[in-house]
Predict the structure.
Amino acid sequence: MSVNDLRGMPQALSDSRSGLWRLWLGPLTAASDAAIVVALVYAVSFAYHLCATGGRPGVDRSTPELAAMLGTLFVFVNLMRGRYQIANYLSKRGQMGSALTVWNITLVAFLALLFLAKIADHYSRAVLVATYICGIPVIALSRSLVVRLVAAGSRTGRITAERAFIIGREVNIMSFVSRHKPWHMGFAVTDVAFLKSSAEAGSSALALDLAAAVANCRTRRPDAVFIAVPWSDQDTISACVDAFMNLPVAIHLAPEPIMERFGGAHVVHTGTLSSLRLTRQPLSTAEVAAKRAFDIVAASCGIILTLPLLLLIAALVRLDSPGPVLFRQRRYGFNQQAFRIFKFRTMTTTDDGQVVLQAKRNDPRITRLGHLLRRYNLDELPQLLNVLAGDMSLVGPRPHALAHDIEFERKIANYARRHNVKPGITGWAQVNGLRGETDTDEKMARRVAYDHWYIDNWSFWLDITILFRTVLSRKAFANAR
């Protein structure tokens, strides 16, 4: 992209229609949400009435009131959370979770109103429960459609969240624009101003550049000004801020390239200290506690329910080949703290040294029973004891032998980051078919990428999904050795 292309882009992007969309998109989205909830309540009530009356069409008398209350509450909660701003619809990330959170709050608020007003008997419990369940996919799909439409409109310049004016040196502006393409994120670039002077070259020369830029900016009437100057050039940044403080605009510092690595970077205020946080702990204290509580309960139930199977497999392992029933091997856990993992022995060897050969297809070291146990992941069942001991979680990145960890840590960037959470009996990589031998660096790098995705996107429901897929998905049993 050239400077001339950039200068020509504002006229293409900042027409009057984008301003109309910016003005009316919020009210239209709110009206759409209300209409969807009302239609949902009527549809559920109609279906329930058909079933309850043996096929006679109609709805319950309380349906209009129920529809109006749920629709109003849903829109009100969205308003309080600031969800009807264009900027909230420019990214797919977190949309489904936010929509379903609002839906849950709506139902809880409605039930609280029923309790306080003592009118719970006025509404059909079946209709209310069915509306809530049916509302989950309906609201998720409707929000997904809105996001797609807004994203498409922002890419073509028909919908803009803000009109932006960019100032800085040419090389920095072109770098910022080429990397981020602000018009794809809802910004209409009204104009750019190239600084020809720096604070070191003379304050008077820089002041002339800024005076011309401010005059141009005042004419363009943008919503925001982006200062594309290296953060190390504090004098120039301060001069730019001072110059544009007198205009009714929001002032932004264009992000440094390092921030592109971190999607969740934001400013954190702690007392009088403000810092740019690039990463956070993978799980908060509350999330760690919730995950640990679930692990203890689920692992305890799992041991109790599978105890006869565990005893049977132990006896068969003992009868099948000489050696211990359990295979124990040192592996890295949370924060690279070593622990010994438990598995039913499936091989004639129990390697745990500086050299550990991975199991391969038709590996002669695998016992007759071992093939069956590995095929159906039954050799992993003793790791429920590791979960109870706190060394592992039910879900997390699969731990590897220490020898393999040391090897791949030298070859794959950020490999050790997978130890930022507890290792798991099953994981996101495994249910996507990435298990078995990693005989190439590319295979391990792909598995690590899935582990990193899990860490960055962890949620309780993701863990539940992985557990179900571990049992029900064919991919979870793929590439078994």
User: Anything to note?
Assistant: Residues 16-52 form the longest helix (37 residues). Confidence is low (pLDDT under 50) at residues 10-16. DSSP finds 15 helices and ten strands in the chain.
